[in-house]
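Per reviewer request, we include the raw input and output of the structure prediction for the construct analysed in the revised manuscript.
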Amino acid sequence: MLSLHRARAGNTVAYESVLDPLEAFMSAVPGVAGGRNPTVAPKFLLQVAIETNQADRVREAATALVEQVWETHGDGHGGLDSWSPWITTSSLDDVLRFENFGFDFIERWREIEAQLGGAVRERWRILIAADAVLFREPEPEQVQLLRATGVRGQPWWIGQAVLEAHVNHEPEDARGAGTVLAELAELAATMQPTDHDRYLTPLQELNVDVKNLVSTISDLDGVGRGFDRVT
């Protein structure tokens, strides 16, 4: 971090002091509860690469970040701008955020997208949009992107973001929400139950009033009845 501050202050050679050590931590490593956060290195590299206009490193870091968070990102307690690599204390929950250190790679997501291609580009767009819906305030085009994203074949947390895009943002799309909810219910039915009754089921964890939504859509082309059949 000190090298990054020096580079931003005018000593641009210091950027290499940030980039070189990061390369060693770019490989996928498992996270450790209360400790190692494997997303820190690609986020750092992504920020430095975009500040220094290094397209190859932008692609490398964005690809690594997508791979590391795609399946489980929404299962955590913070968005892509959160950062708590070694310290876990509630007093720092709103302090250790990348944006507080001048990291703006999330706001510059379009610049990063322009450097990507194929499946990585599509996943990057969905990742940023889903993260915005769940943890920040999404842009209208991000809401529309998620509403056009199918739930089948997607990680559960992205399906949750798709549902919230239909329900929690204007104009509310009850019909689309009903379709997504029915698909999520089918997916939830295939998941292994937890060993402890105190844990919420996947549907109970949705940040949506499911009963009210089902009541609202019950007369829309049988969507509500379809949901009832799978629950």
